[in-house]
């Protein structure tokens, strides 16, 4: 159980402070050395594994591990490396080291060029077809994610994918029969270019450390109470009563203004008796019986008004006009219309007064 735990790897961060990372860079720098010294790929693989255990998996060391594993193991190592890279890019791209996108693209493009160089030195047989399919699937997953990120062409991994696809087609066309005799004159490939079909050490298991999704809680709203027909009828009556009461209050507040009614009553026009033509038209609208019924109340009201007129002083009209103007002047002293009415009233009084010559006889 302890051995299985030691082989479990998680995503790591910046490894540049570790001594193994410095040693790893020194070994891989031989690839660019003018003297072209041999790279110890076994040591490169061991340094990568040591960094995985100390720091975790990040893109720089994963790229180095893929190339070293391909050199030491062959096609099986290529499968392991591509699957590791696919897991990193597909699930840990946001938090992956190095954080710069251009640095990540440069690493994947560098790996693509190196893998194509190694591939040209490899010799495959029909039994390697399953491993080719496995590597092609991992690379397809990796390229799909890079296409989503719009980085596929910059990483130049299409060349590796085309290389695997052509190899698969070539192996499919060969006859899958073990122990076939080779043609005479065919030379054996150099021993240094042969690879084992299985890895020489137990593969490490990379655990994708993604946060667990929060639990989804579905809250269903409470079902509303059933609305019965009687409830709707009662609600309609209540609403109608409220509207009628509000309308009545508004109408009463508008129509009943005691101040306005009091002032208008003092200035209401005096009743004028009907003219002869009006009386003739009015008599046509009622029968003789109706006129006989109306005679008593109308004559009684006329008698009461005649009594009031006999009691009025001779200067009643003048006094009433003066009282109306005095009331208006007290209510609106600065109103121009009040001043105009006062001037007009004084003119009418002067026009109706007797001349001074006639007053001398009294």
From TrEMBL:
Q: Name one Pfam family in it.
A: ImpA_N
- Give all residue intervals belonging to the ImpA C-terminal domain: 303-359
Segments forming domain ImpA N-terminal: 11-112
Q: Which PANTHER family match?
A: IMPA N-TERMINAL DOMAIN-CONTAINING PROTEIN, TYPE VI SECRETION SYSTEM DUF2094 AND IMPA-RELATED DOMAIN PROTEIN
Name-wise, this protein is ImpA domain family protein
**Biological classification of the source:** Bacteria, Pseudomonadati, Pseudomonadota, Gammaproteobacteria, Enterobacterales
